[in-house]
Design goal:
alpha/beta; about 40% helix; Rossmann fold; globular; seven-stranded mixed sheet; three-stranded antiparallel sheet
C-alpha cells in the first residue's frame, strides 16, 4: 500500500478551513510537521485522501476535536530527560517555593499530562505541593478530559519507573498510580489544585502572575514567528524573577531576548526573567 502524501495546495487549504470554520490558526506551525500530522491522521482514520479529511472537519466537530488531540503531541514518558528533573529537585524548587505564597506553575500545552503529573509527584516528594497552584492549557479538550481522569498507557510503566529511579532513591512510582491488565491510572488527587484552560493556538487565554513555566519540546513544531510570539507571551505571564524551562534542543533567541531573560542553566534550557 502506497503511503498517502498531502500536496502543498491541499495543506494550505486545510489550514485555511481550520481557521475559517473553527478559528484555529495553524499557519505558523512548522509546515513539514503540520503536513506530516495531517497525513498520519488521514491514514490512521482511513479517510483515504484530503477531500475526505476536509469534509470531516467541516461537517463534524468531533472529527475536528479528534484532530486537535492528534496535533497535541504526547510527551511520551514521565520525568523525561531526568537531568532536568534532578535540577528542579535539588536546586531550583527547594530555593524558590518555600515561603512563597500563591506560587503558580503554568504548563502551556499539557498534551498527554506526563509533565503535569511528574511535577505533582516531585512537589509531593519535596512536601511543597500545598504551596503551589497549577495552570494547565491545551488546544484539545479530549486531552484535558483524559488527563483529569488520570489515564495513561500501561506500556509506559517500565520507562516511567526507570526515570523515577534516576531521580529518587526512595519510594516507588507505583505509589502514585494503579494498574490493571490493560489500563493504568494516576492518583488524580495529585492534580486537584490544577486549573485547566482550553485555549486556541495563539494563547488568547492565559494566566498571569506565573512564577514557573514548563514548556518543553513544543516550539520545535512552530516556525520562528510563532516561537517568538509564545516566548513574548510567556515573558508577559512571568513575574520578575520567574523561571521558564524549555526543551534541551530549544533556545530563547529573538532580537531583544537578552534584555528579557538571563540563563540559569544552558544545558537544561532554564531561564529567569530579569527583574527590570
Amino acid at each position: 500500500m502506497n503511503k498517502f502524501e498531502l500536496g502543498i495546495v491541499d495543506t494550505r487549504t486545510i489550514i485555511k478551513i481550520l481557521q475559517d470554520v473553527y478559528d484555529y490558526d495553524f499557519k505558523n506551525y512548522a509546515l513539514t510537521f503540520f503536513k506530516r500530522r495531517v497525513e498520519n491522521f488521514i491514514r490512521i482514520n482511513n479517510l483515504k485522501n484530503a477531500e475526505f479529511f476536509i469534509q470531516g472537519i467541516e461537517q463534524d466537530p468531533e472529527t475536528f476535536e479528534s484532530f486537535l488531540k492528534f496535533m497535541a503531541v504526547d510527551i511520551t514518558e514521565m520525568f523525561r530527560d531526568p537531568s532536568v528533573w534532578r535540577l528542579l529537585k535539588e536546586e531550583l524548587l527547594v530555593n524558590i517555593i518555600p515561603g512563597a505564597t500563591n506560587f503558580k506553575i503554568w504548563f502551556p500545552e499539557v498534551s498527554s499530562g506526563e509533565e503535569l503529573y511528574s511535577m505533582a509527584i516531585l512537589l509531593n516528594k519535596l512536601k511543597l505541593a500545598q504551596n503551589v497552584q497549577f495552570y494547565a492549557s491545551s488546544i484539545s479538550k479530549l486531552n484535558i478530559e483524559k488527563i483529569k481522569a488520570g489515564f495513561f498507557d500501561p506500556r509506559k510503566v517500565e520507562v516511567n519507573n526507570a526515570n523515577y529511579k534516576r531521580i529518587f532513591s526512595e519510594g516507588e512510582l507505583s505509589d502514585f498510580y494503579t494498574q490493571e491488565i490493560e489500563k493504568a491510572f494516576w492518583d488524580t488527587s495529585l492534580i486537584e489544585n490544577t486549573k485547566f484552560i482550553k485555549q486556541n493556538i495563539i494563547f488568547d487565554d492565559y494566566p498571569k502572575g506565573i512564577k514557573l513555566i514548563i514548556f518543553r519540546n513544543q516550539m520545535i513544531f512552530y516556525n520562528q514567528i510563532l516561537q517568538e510570539r509564545f516566548l513574548k507571551i510567556m515573558h508577559n505571564c512571568l513575574v520578575p524573577g520567574g523561571h521558564l524551562i524549555i526543551g534541551n534542543n530549544e533556545k530563547i533567541d529573538y532580537w531583544n531576548s537578552d534584555k528579557d531573560y538571563i540563563t540559569v542553566s544552558k544545558s537544561e534550557s532554564v531561564y529567569k526573567k530579569k527583574l527590570s
